[in-house]
Write a structure and sequence with these properties.
- This protein is of the alpha+beta class and 204 residues long.
- 47% of the residues lie in helices and 15% in strands.
- The strands form three sheets. A three-stranded antiparallel sheet has the order 5-7-6. A two-stranded antiparallel ribbon has the order 1-4. The protein has a two-stranded antiparallel ribbon with strand order 2-3.
- β6 and β7 (151-159) form a beta hairpin.
């Protein structure tokens, strides 16, 4: 398969169906920006041939220049593999990753509503144009916007009934996909993983 595709290495009966897409627990390799040929794994490959680190996974002959580089590239590759399944899931419901994130933030504000700039500040991955992002949600009938009666300059967004229905439909599949992707890690490992990722973004 060419660059940017997904290679499915498993016909395991434990495969999970989420929404309209088939997600395989861990046996997905995203062939994207690196565009390298990894080991020739087939469906009959033994566990012994599985890579033990990123260097083996991407077929890199020499070690990485520094552990910081390896950590960064590990983050990039892991994000690509995990995010691809979510992108497909959200697409099946007619929204993007960013739109789903914004919709959840707006819904959490309730009837009070929330300003566009606040939505932008709270998004997991910053969107360069939050106003346009909310415009698309409004055109889809998922949010509505109004000017405050006491300050006509201030516009707030509120989720609509249709937006809440969409969230109720998607959220169980999102939670299930999280479990499919990272359920093999223990609670202790997940706490350590989360702590390290936060520390990487916020050096002491």
């Amino acid at each position: 398969m060419g660059c940017g595709g997904i290679v499915n290495l498993s016909e395991d009966p434990a495969d999970r169906r989420i929404g309209d897409f088939q997600y395989i627990k861990v046996r997905l390799i995203l062939v994207d920006t690196l565009c390298v040929e990894t080991h020739n794994w087939s469906m009959g490959s033994s566990r012994a041939s599985a890579p033990r680190n990123l260097q083996q996974e991407v077929g890199k002959v020499e070690p990485f220049d520094q552990p910081e580089q390896e950590a960064y590239l590990n983050l990039i590759r892991t994000t690509s593999v995990l995010a691809d399944a979510f992108t497909s899931l959200f697409k099946s419901y007619g929204v993007s990753d960013a739109q789903y994130n914004a919709l959840r933030i707006i819904a959490s504000a309730g009837r009070v509503g929330i300003r566009s700039e606040t939505v932008g500040e709270r998004m997991v991955a910053r969107d360069p144009d939050t106003t346009r992002l909310i415009d698309r949600l409004q055109k889809a009938g998922l949010v509505e916007r109004d000017r405050l009666s006491d300050d006509r300059r201030c516009v707030v967004a509120r989720v609509t009934a249709e937006g809440r229905r969409l969230l109720r439909r998607i959220t169980p599949h999102v939670q299930e996909l999280h479990q499919v992707q990272l359920g093999h890690l223990s609670r202790t490992q997940l706490r350590q993983f989360n702590a390290l990722l936060f520390l990487a973004r916020h050096p002491e």
